[in-house]
Amino acid sequence: MRAPSGEVLAGQVLLSVENVSLSFGGVKAIRDVSFDIRKGEIRAIIGPNGAGKTSLLNVINGFYQPQEGRITFRGETREKMRPYAAASGGIARTFQNVALFKGMSALDNIMTGRSLKMRRSFFWQLLRHGPALAEEVEHRRRVEEIIDFLEINAIRRVQVGRLPYGLQKRVELGRALAMEPDLLLLDEPMAGMNMEEKEDMSRFILDVNNHYGTTIALIEHDMGVVMDLSNRVLVLDYGRKIADGTPDEVKADRAVIDAYLGVAHR
Amino acid sequence: MNLLYQIFIDPFVQMGTAPDLLVQTLWEGLVGGVLYALIALGFVLIFKASGVFNFAQGIMVVFAAMSLVSLHAVGIPAFLALALTFAIMLALAWGVERLVLRPLVNQPDIILFMATFGLTYFLIGFGELVFGGEPKVMITDQLYLPRGAYDIKMLGGFVSLQKIDIAAAVIASLMVATLAVFFQKTRIGRALRAVADSHRAALSVGISLEQIWVIVWFAAGIVAIATGIMWGARSQVEFSLQIIALKALPVLILGGFTSIPGAIVGGVIIGVGEKLGEFYWGPLLGSGIESWLAYMIALVFLLFRPQGLFGEKIIERV
Q1: Touching check for B194 and chain A: CB below 8 Å?
Q2: What CA–CA distances, in Å, run from A41 to A246, B36, B202?
Q3: pTM beyond cutoff 0.80
């Protein structure tokens, strides 16, 4: 399914965004932002509310089509991403306000993450026999591994709408992982969590990054978490990039401090 | 006093004294209910996956039946004609996705609803142009559907079961069972439920909305074929039949718009309620009772359970 030319080595640029601008009517959500994500790193995107962080993720996975700029993923450059192209190219994501399939069990939710990997025809599926059944069993095994990894065995049959928020976030992460993504976009994975849940989630993110080599871009407000987890940090404010560098560089950056402490913009 | 007796006591006395008639009425109600359930099922499929209330389900039933009969009338063998009718419904599903749904994506629900009105009148006009406006007779014999009736001696009388009605009940049950397994156990079934729950989450895992829409409209088309054959076999195939779409409304209100079991149970309740009402209370209230009783039942239901029997409870935070 993937072009062999799209193989990217660790440390090289996996995805780059160049001069992207996005506006909704008169409102400019993103103004001329360029940045890149390298294979194997954890890349944090931070900034005050309304800075355009989620919009940027939406541009990367094709939910929003920017008016200007280019996106290069795996060496292939395009003006805009499409959700299907992003998903089949190996970009998975979670959402700021959990977007799960509430009526389905945790297990089924995670199984949907395998949608693109399951290719048996409609006809066999209808019969639920032969190749389709073997396929279902194989994918089920992979999903069970993810369930083990995320320690959500106890809730696999529970309808996710009934789960507490922290567990919903975990199921959502599981669904994204089931896609075996190369690039995982996490939109505030720890929002609304208590200390213990945050520690669990941090551990999962680091494990995913270490064991599977998955590249991760995450939006997060908890600065402690960001500084601990990420290799590089992109800072946005009012839709503009105001800083980009290692956690230490960013922490010392004048513009970043101004943005966070609310110094008047000149 | 006398009126109260006639309404609340007398019908039940009649039921008790002639149980064979009661069973006969219940059976006819059940069969009518199965057909309502099939129409409602077509609605539920589309509503679940795309949130569109498809007013055109009624005309799809007629269109499918008309295609089948007309194809056979020009000399195509019955089962080949049936296969071609499947192809026509697939083409219709594809056309609807391309020409109606895709351009209107992200529009308010009411716009899509109106679009299905447009689709209804287009299909009526187009259908009359192609098939002609006169009523047609369903090709029951050629499809090897049974004819005649079983007369069963029971409860001191006769109960007469039409074979075609039994066939309708069996086919409907099989279809519902197949759909249920398909929805619960397969990738595409999971994708359908996923799309119904959250469009953006479905997109993020690479589910193609276009493909899913074609599949649900085709599934609704298959249901329409079955409904068309069964309904056509009991009366005639004519365009005015499309109005039965409106009969699905009380069924949906009872069963909930998103529930397949709800469509079945709702259909049976409405069917049985209608027949009982017509037979036992009809003489009191005038013979037109069948045309409004279903809506009355639905109205009473709305007061107590607005989400329907099986619908998801609507919880809104303020």
Answers
A1: yes
A2: 12, 58, 27
A3: no
What pLDDT, on a 0 to 100 scale, did the predictor assign at position A2?
41
Find, among A79, A30, A91, the residue nearest to A217 by Cα.
Answer: A91
Q: Which two tokens stand for residue B64?
A: 């499918």
Comma-separated ranges of CATH 3.40.50.300 domains in chain A = 1-90+181-266
Question: Of the candidates A180, A84, A174, A163, which has an alpha carbon nearest to the alpha carbon of residue A189?
Answer: A174
Task: Tell me, letter by letter, the H, E, C secondary structure of B248-272.
Answer: HHHHHHHHCCCCHHHHHHHHHHHHH
Q: How far is CA A160 from CA A133, A139, B313, in A?
A: 25, 20, 15
Pull the structure tokens for residue A234: 């992109």
d(CA A101, CA A108): 9
Q: How many CB pairs under 8 A join A and B?
A: 89
Pick from A226, A200, A194, A230: which is nearest to A215 by CA? Answer: A230
> Using one digit for the tens of pLDDT, what is the confidence trace for A227-261?
889 999 999 999 999 999 999 898 888 888 888 77
Q: Does B198 touch chain A (CB under 8 A)?
A: yes
Helix, strand, or coil (residue A12): coil
What pLDDT band is residue B108 in, cutting at 50, 70 and 90?
confident
Longest dimension (CA), chain A: 68
* Collapsed DSSP state (helix, strand, coil) of residue B158: strand
**Contact of A143 with A110, CB cutoff 8 Å:** yes
Chain A contact present for B291, CB below 8 A: no
Smallest CA-to-CA distance from A108 within A158, A148, A154 is with A158
- Integer CA distances (angstroms), B232 to A79, B1, B165, B255, in order: 54, 44, 12, 25
Domains of chain B, by residue range, sit at: 19-246
Q: CA B153 to CA B151: how far, in whole Å?
A: 7
Which one is the CATH code of A1-90+181-266: 3.40.50.720, 3.40.30.10, 3.30.2130.10, 3.40.50.300?
A: 3.40.50.300
Q: How far apart are CA A208 and CA B124, in angstroms?
A: 57
Which phi and psi angles does B65 have, rounded to 5°? -65, -45
| φ, ψ (nearest 5 deg) of residue B76 | -85, 135
Of B178, B182, B190, the CB nearest to A112: B190
Asked if the ipTM is above 0.95, the reply is: no
Confirm if B99 and B76 have CB atoms less than 8 A apart.
no
